[in-house]
Amino acid sequence: MSTVLRLLFLGDVVGAPGRKAVIDFLPKIKEERELDFIVVNGENSAAGKGITPKIAIEFMRAGAAVVTTGDHVWDQRDLVDFMKDEPRVLRPLNYEARTPGSGSIVLETKKGKVGVMQLQGRTFMQPPLQNPFYHGPKEAKRMREEGVKAIFCDFHAEATSEKVAFSRCMDGLVSGVCGTHTHVQTADERIFPGGTAHLSDAGMCGPDDSVIGRDIDSVLWRFENSMPTRFPIAKGPVRLCGAIIDIDMETGKALKIERLSHLVEDEQAAE
Q: Is 223:191 a contact under the CB 8 Å cutoff?
């Protein structure tokens, strides 16, 4: 009988409300859903711009095995030195090789080795990085040659077409690909023929009554007036979004993918 690993991925954590809800929620859901491995995208967790070493450590203490980032990875300067010593915090793999930090990691678990990688798309994204359609398969093949079959990928991208195409490119090479960056959870979860689970965007972990985590009035003012303004983090109940993937550890194929959307009723204080 094959061994099954249950992996939870949580989408972009937004500000203090999102990170507090995630930190409180992780130990509970880990026990309730019998999770084996947790990955959290924390790139908007520091006041909506980047992540600090302190916040990354808090996520890992709460149960996250790996923390991913995205296009805001360098917004908090102290993260640069931290990433040199903490390989469990990832930046996109398709940066230049000399860039600080790493874009992938392999960790030992009770059920075997698990690989995690992150890549960033290029359509409507800044800065434009190296081609993820080259670097993603190359890294997945390297991991598999080293005996790692359970591999998860966070694809941080804007365009849905690019996300679907990237997952198709990775089909059969990794166990699952979940998109991040748009903060809006999609409803296209499925398992492709090669055994790779796909979700175009995991959604965000942030204030539910908002515009992708930001104060509604401020965002409306910007759209109505085309003038620059601040976008404070919204207040109120937080919705936690992501996906749970069951992985066959003998083959690396996904057996099941389930969207997660959980509303935390307790109001969190915004930054």
A: no
Whole-number Å distance between alpha carbons of 162 and 89: 24
Which tokens go with 8?
A: 């939870």
Domain count for the chain: 1
Active site residue 156: no
CA distance 118 to 6: 19
Structure tokens at 190: 């499925």
Q: How far apart are CA 12 and CA 229, in angstroms?
A: 22
Q: Is residue 257 part of a domain?
A: yes
CATH number of the domain encompassing residue 168: 3.60.21.10
**Does residue 150 contact residue 175 with C-beta atoms inside 8 Å?**
yes
Single-letter code of the amino acid located at 211: V
What is d(CA 197, CA 174) in angstroms, rounded to the nearest whole number?
A: 8
From 72, 156, 181, 198, the catalytic residue:
72
d(CA 149, CA 141): 10
165: alpha, beta or left? (left if phi > 0; alpha if psi -120 to 50): alpha
Segments forming the whole domain that contains residue 37: 4-266
Distance, CA of 55 to CA of 66 (rounded, Å) = 13
**pLDDT tens across 187-237, in order?**
999 999 999 999 999 999 999 999 999 999 999 999 999 999 999 999 999
d(CA 175, CA 197): 6
Beta carbons of 97 and 119 less than 8 angstroms apart:
no
Query: What is the per-residue pLDDT across 125-154, written as a single tens digit (0 to 9) for each?
Result: 999 999 999 999 999 999 999 999 999 999
Judge whether 73 and 99 are in contact, CB under 8 Å. Answer: no
The answer to whether the beta carbons of residues 187 and 209 sit under 8 Å apart is: no
